[in-house]
Structure formats: C-alpha cells, structure tokens
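USER: My hope is that you can spare some time for a protein that puzzles me. I am handing you a single protein, as its sequence and its fold in token form. Walk me, if you will, through where the backbone shape changes along the chain. The protein I mean follows directly.
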Amino acid sequence: MTDAQETAAAPAAQAPSADAAPAPVPLLEPREGIPPVTASAEDLARVVEAFGAGSGPVAVDAERASGYRYGQRAYLVQLRRAGAGTALIDPVACPDLSGLDEALAGSEWVLHAATQDLPCLREIGMRPTRLFDTELAGRLAGFARVGLGAMVDNVLGYALEKGHSAVDWSTRPLPEPWLRYAALDVELLVDLRDALEVELSRQGKLEWAQEEFAAIAAAPAPPPRKDPWRRTSGMHKVRRRRQMAVVRELWFARDAVARKRDVSPGKVLTDAAIVEAALAMPTGARALSALPGFGQRMGRKQLDQWQAAVDRARALAEEELPQQGQATSGPPPPRSWADKDPAAAARLSAARAAVTRHAEELNLPQENLLTPDTVRRLCWEPPAAVSAESVSGALRGLGAREWQIAQTAELLRAALSSPGA
C-alpha cells in the first residue's frame, strides 16, 4: 500500500462503465495536518533531505496566479512521497529548486495534467525524467470526466474540495484554507496513479500510456508563440490591416505595462477594449475615452499611453502593416479543401471516419488516438506510394507514437487508397 492507504484504504478502481458508486467520502484534512510552508534555505534543505530519502513515486502539483499576475510562474509547489509526507514550498522565497530536482533524480513524478505544470516547474529547476500523468491516464482509460476531483471521486471514492483552484496564489501569507486545499491535492495522487495503472493494464493500454508519459517528459519547451497579439479575443471582427496594426500596437503596449507591474494583461486593458479601439481608430484621447473599456476610472496618463499606441499604428507605412493571414507551414483549413483539392478532401473524410470509429471501439478520445493535425497533414500530403510501411513512416515523421502507429497505420492506408481519395 502507499502511505495514503495505510490508515484509510481507498476503494478499488472502477472501470469507466461501472455502475454508479456510493456517495464519495469527503476528504477534509491532510493525514499529518497542514504542513508549514517552506520559505527558507534551511527549511528547504530539510525537505530535500526528506524527499531524497523517501521511497516510491512522488506526487507533485503547482499553483499559479493566472488572471492575477503576469506570466505563469509557480507560487506554491506541493509534494508528497512515502516516508517524507507532504511539503508545501514557496517558490517566491525559494526560487531555485534544482537541489530538490537532484534529490528526486530517477524517481517517477505523478502529476495531474502535467503539461500545465511542467513549464512553471522547469522555471524553478524541476525537470522530471519519468512521470505518470493521471489526467492523461484517465483519458486513455476512457473516463468521461478527468478533472482531479472527478477522478479521485470515481476511482478512489473520495471527494476533494475544489473551491480554491482559481484564487490569487501570489497572496502572502497564504490563508490556511488554501494551504489545506493545496495539501489535499497531492494527498491521494499516488493512490490514483496506482489504481489507474491497474485499470490501464486491465484494458491492455498501459504500454500506450507509458509511451505518452515518456513523450511528455522528453518534449522540449515550446518556442515563443509567433505574433501572440493575433490571439486577442474578438480579433475576428478586425478586418482591415491598419486596424490590425492598432491591435498589435495596443497589445504590446499593454504587455509592457503588465510585465512591469506584474499583473495579468487583462487587468491592465481588456481584449474587448483593444478591439473597440481598433475598430474606431480614435484620433485623440477624448474620443478614446468614450469607447467601452477606456472611460470612467482610467486616468489621463493611461489614456495618452493607449492613444499613443493607436497613433503609432495610424502613422505606419503601408508596407509596415501586418498581413491579413498568418503564414503557416501546414495544410490550409479543411473547409477549403473541397475547392482546392477534392481528392485531399475525400481522403480526409475517409481518414477522419476511420480514426473516429476506431477511437470509439477503443473507448478513448479521438485526439488521443491520433491528433487531428496529424490526420490533416497526412491527408494533405500523403506518401507518393501508399502502403502500410509508407504511412507508418509518415506518421512517425509527424510525431505519432509507436502505439498510435500500430493502431492507425492500416486504417489510414485503406482511407488514403479508397475510391475517390
């Protein structure tokens, strides 16, 4: 048994199709109580020693201040391991956790939705080489609801209190109810891992999951997003290139202010306000102040700052304006395929149907069997000579895992070779 099972054994894992379970047991307090927050070099050294001496997988979680602070840095890191108990670490006071990372070298880390937490963990020196993602495991096992609370409920029979997930974790000191919530998030994570491993093995999917986990651990940090201003909410309303330039200038001006003040950009200026200014193209601060999102409490200095961004866009030469569409290396949007390449559209239709049908047979989401982007790219530019081998090679080149190739290569070969494709 894991340490969390020593005093309160959890119910056995339930298959996704199992009958409704009894009401979950509320999990109200961490077993050893709420641990003190580690916020000094001396306390961190003790945590490093304890977790290095612990045994088995280590549960890891991180809390950010999305919507409150600039960026996605971690403001609390939670860990639990057999023999070490639970630790709550303040990464603001202890910004370098590379020593802890070294103490855990070779250990399996258990995270829920790992891709959300890994970037902020890497920033503070924590880089797992082995992991088990309980959310992804739940998807592969066919669970309809894969949030941590739902998984702990459905698989272990306990109810986690989730009321503090969206609070401002940069608050100091952190209130006791928040710390309790944070500690409970890792209380049963290893138990959940163990139960899901049994379920995946029962379904014959454990090796698939292990391939997925290895790919996540080995994946490099993604490059910075190109033209991030294009993701401004409401951007679809902006049609003209000079209006797009206003969005771009306001986006970067807002980003600079948000970074300097360490606040979420949306708290500086909303996306809706940026779009309104782009559509109206105000010629002065007074006209700007009449637009939604710029009036009321906004001071003259702020208005002048935003108007200056609008004026910069108005003054740009034609060749300096952003282009209407963002250049992409992939295929065009599928809605245009029927006109651009009817054969490719037929291939895509057949391939999508085959992948969807097989995903349903395997009881897992289609996007986990094979990503839609992979299917699109293969259908837009199929191998010159379609065969199971050439399709497998193409999928491998597109980043598909071996288990995905084994499950889909023959289906896709048939789809690419079907009449009309």
Q: What stands out?
A: The CA atoms of residues 91 and 175 lie 16 Å apart.
